[in-house]
Amino acid sequence: MAGTPDTVADDDALYVLTAVLLTPTQFPSVLGDDYVAACAVLGLEPYAEGYGLVLGQDGGGARWTVVVDDVSLVAVAIASWDCGMAYDLSPDDRSVVCALPGWPLAVAVAAPGVPAPHDPPPDPEAGGGGPLPLAPPDTESWGPPQRRLGADEVAAQWAAWREQVDDGTAHGPAAGHAGEAVGESGRPGGGSAGPGGGSAAPPGRHPGVRRVLAEARAYVVDPPPPGRIRSAFAPGGARTLRVDGPGWSLVARTDDMAFALLDEEPGEVLPIGRGPELPGLLTALDGLALRPA
Q1: Does pTM top 0.85 for this prediction?
Q2: 5, 23, 84, 231: which could form a disulfide with 15 (CB 3.0–4.6 Å)?
């Protein structure tokens, strides 16, 4: 998702490389477990309308994240780029909320004709008290951002992950309760969801999985902040759920099983059998989820 270099303002050129939405229904998971937390990382008020984040370089090559309140404009640009179409993303100055140094996400492209991407120097007018440059999380460590990125990967590659779990095991007697982890954890084709490899998750009840499901059930009684539960289209009329909580992430299909990732289990992906309780829980969570307009 990258556009051709354009400028946000003639007097302060920004060569636009990409953009993402920051709304209650769609935001970079790396920033937080929910929309409110993601806004807090960037020092923004969690307005219901949301924001667009425009990532680019200035004329000196420095990285900048420009926050705009014209969400529709950014959404159209993203949709156009996803379709392989050029789009001139040039937000009006009046829509710019702020400009933050650095990028919160890894960007694989760079603007031509300017120095290589680098963090801008500190603002001398801030007297050393300005915000630190944003930076993507370290891929060599494991923590909440990496756990959420791992859950994003599972959601994006659901079919590949699902193939690693035998249907008979996932839906059979060994997985008869929604709180039971089944099969093995790991990246499709071997390995784990994070750095440092990972070991197989033994079948049976996993204490971390029991905690995830208990806290997810609590959401049904006491709904969490916006963005903790997100719902997206899935094949066959089903929904893909992304649910997050303190130290855990859950990825599920409403017509199938679920996978859990935990802060205390670096790189592990724990399959959760469907059983008799999981379908009702997923349906209830999907009913709470905010959906893109």
Answers
A1: no
A2: 5
